[in-house]
Write a structure and sequence with these properties.
With 592 residues, the chain is mainly alpha-helical. It contains 25 helices and eight strands. The protein has a six-stranded mixed sheet. The protein has a two-stranded antiparallel ribbon with strand order 1-2. Helix 23 (484-488) links the parallel strand 3 (471-475) and strand 4. Helix 4 (71-97) packs parallel to helix 7 (125-144). The longest helix is centred in the last third of the chain and has 31 residues, at 423-453.
Length: 592
């Protein structure tokens, strides 16, 4: 299953530039770790960065060191994380249900649209999901194992949960352990605790999960408070001291995105959870793994539904459990019942109709609906009353039309499956193949979005207009153009950029000269020092609107950004340069 995931996800991995905001800042943090040699304290544009733990950045930096700086090397850890998550899901499914159901569970996870999207995206989420699922796999197989083999599985599961804390969140240890412990307690099997949580496993969990946090806290004053209190406890009630620009989903939006992101597997998974409740499965020791998975999925969705802050990807860690529960629901329907095939036939036909109608429209309603809920950047820009860069509909329309055709063919195949004597498993296979056929469309849509708002083009403009003694300035949070330094090879000054993931880092004395206010920018602008200002803010909302017009010159506007300069205006004939003489969008080389 892992090889199948790699075969589906690897092609074209480096074909488009980094999406900004989104991917660029993570690639740049890894590049700076490699260049500086400091892999303990992470930095972005030279400023201490505390928002995420280091596993993703270590892996990307290792890839950069091996293959050089590239989009492919930066996205590879996400792909490997996705493959590892699929493998853990398939393995646990095979042990609990048999090889066929295990394979179906792996395919179900891989074909969840939201999971497939993050599998090719420079973020720690698929690594996080993989570590959590391997933790569940190890602990649950330890429950069913005996002696040395069971203990090995338990230790492996604990190590994986420690890696989850190192990938994204130290609180990842609490949920999975709590779900397994509660399921064991309900089944009367929690003792002896050492059978599923041996001392060696607990030691490995603490060492892997909290070792880096302890070292980072010793070196960086305020790190522990920021991580535990500000970034988690206060964030959950929207009372952060160092907030960023992210706009949380409402509870209904979160449930809709998390559910549709796991389409269509969320439906049989919910039905299977209902069956477990009706059977009171928690009283049966043989059902402990399924009760644990159900508690984890329901608990995760419940916590974030009630939390004041949640983003579209917060439901991802529950997707392996959803895939396993869905595979069990399908495995219990091997007979001649045509109901599953007919139900999915209707669903796929409806999806084909909706997407087909969207492909025939002007696309505005479709794009407004999809991006306003699923895309963090689009939500921020909507709050700021600014239209962000998105792919033109003429490029996105064929992707939507092709996806509609895939669902139409799936519905046709399901109609044929109803005539089979074993329509249950045949229908499951058709659903799996149909959803896998959608995955390439997800990747292509991501590529179009990244190309529409990547900072790489603006970085090329910066290199083109650069002159000795110039100062590069970025207006607003740097995560909006996170790969600016990576692509341009010049480190920017940040103006009006403290409300960001660098909020805590901006309080350290060494960061003082990295952050400017509007007054300092104006003084430098009027002093004659050559300045190049990159901003994602529209001209009327940018700080340049407060500078005398005769001292402001627009050099370029592309991919949702503007490049301004204080260079004196020259006759147009002197300014024009042949476009084909511009330098290519090459990446700066890492000094080793």
């Amino acid at each position: 299953m892992a090889l199948s995931a790699l075969a589906l996800l690897l092609p074209g991995l480096g074909a488009v530039p980094f999406d900004d905001p989104g991917e660029g800042q993570h690639a740049e943090i890894a590049r700076e770790a490699l260049v500086s040699g400091d892999w303990l304290t992470l930095r972005l544009v030279g400023v201490r960065y505390y928002d995420k733990p280091p596993l993703l950045y270590w892996l990307i930096a290792a890839g950069f060191k091996t293959w050089g700086v590239s989009e492919w090397a930066a996205r590879l850890p996400a792909v490997l994380g996705a493959a590892a998550a699929v493998a853990a899901t398939a393995l646990l499914g095979a042990r609990l249900l048999g090889p066929g159901a295990g394979a179906l569970a792996g395919v179900a996870l891989l074909s969840c649209a939201l999971f497939a999207a993050f599998a090719r995206y420079v973020r720690p989420d698929t690594l996080f999901v993989a570590a959590i699922q391997w933790g569940f796999t190890g602990l649950l197989l330890a429950v069913h194992g005996d002696g040395f083999r069971g203990r090995r599985w338990a230790i492996a599961g604990c190590a994986a949960l420690g890696a989850a804390a190192l990938a994204k969140d130290p609180f990842a240890l609490v949920g999975p352990l709590g779900a397994v412990a509660l399921a064991l307690a309900l089944g009367g099997r929690i003792r002896p605790v050492g059978r599923w949580l041996p001392a060696a496993g607990a030691a490995v969990l603490l060492l892997v999960g909290f070792g880096w946090y302890a070292l980072a806290s010793a070196r960086n004053p305020g790190f522990l408070w920021y991580t535990v209190v500000d970034n988690h406890l206060l964030n959950a009630v929207q009372m952060r001291r160092f907030p960023d620009e992210d706009v949380p989903l409402s509870s209904l939006e979160f449930l809709a995105v998390a559910g549709l992101g796991a389409f269509p597997w969320i439906v049989p998974a919910a039905l299977e959870m209902g069956t477990l409740v009706r059977r009171r499965a928690w009283r049966d020791p043989e059902e402990i793994p399924w009760v644990a998975l159900g508690l984890w999925a329901a608990g995760l969705f419940g916590v974030f539904t009630l939390s004041a802050f949640k983003l579209p990807h917060y439901g991802l860690p529950a997707y392996p459990a959803v895939a396993l529960l869905a595979a069990r629901w399908w495995s219990e329907r091997e007979g001649r019942s045509r109901r599953p095939a007919l139900a999915y036939l209707a669903v796929f036909a409806l999806m084909a109709a909706i997407l087909g109608a969207a492909a025939l429209s002007d696309g505005r309603a479709f794009m407004d609906t999809v991006f306003s809920v699923t895309d963090v950047s689009s939500r921020k820009e909507a709050v700021a009353a600014q239209a962000g860069p998105l792919p033109v509909w003429s490029l996105l329309r064929p992707v939507v039309a092709r996806t509609a055709l895939v669902f139409a063919l799936g519905a046709t195949a399901l109609a044929a499956a109803t005539a089979s004597r074993r329509s249950g498993w045949l229908a499951a296979a058709v659903v799996a193949v149909t959803m896998l056929a959608v995955v390439p469309s997800v990747g292509q849509a991501l590529g179009l979005v990244a190309s529409a708002r990547a900072v790489s083009g603006m970085a090329a403009e910066v290199r083109w207009y650069w002159q000795p003694g110039a100062v590069l300035v970025h207006e607003g949070p740097i995560e909006n153009s996170g790969a600016l330094e990576l692509y341009s090879a010049f480190r920017p000054i940040l103006v009006d950029g403290a409300r960001s993931v660098l909020g805590m880092g901006s309080t350290f004395p060494e960061a003082a000269d990295r952050f400017w206010d509007a007054g300092r920018l104006t003084r430098a602008w009027l002093s004659g020092t050559p300045i190049l200002l990159v901003t994602p803010r529209e001209p009327a909302r940018s700080l340049v609107a407060g500078i005398p017009r005769e001292r402001v010159r627009l050099l370029a506007a592309r991919q949702g950004r503007w490049l301004w300069s204080n260079a004196p205006r020259e006759p147009e004939a002197q300014l024009s340069r042949p476009r084909n003489s511009r330098p290519p969008n090459s990446r700066p080389q890492i000094s080793r």
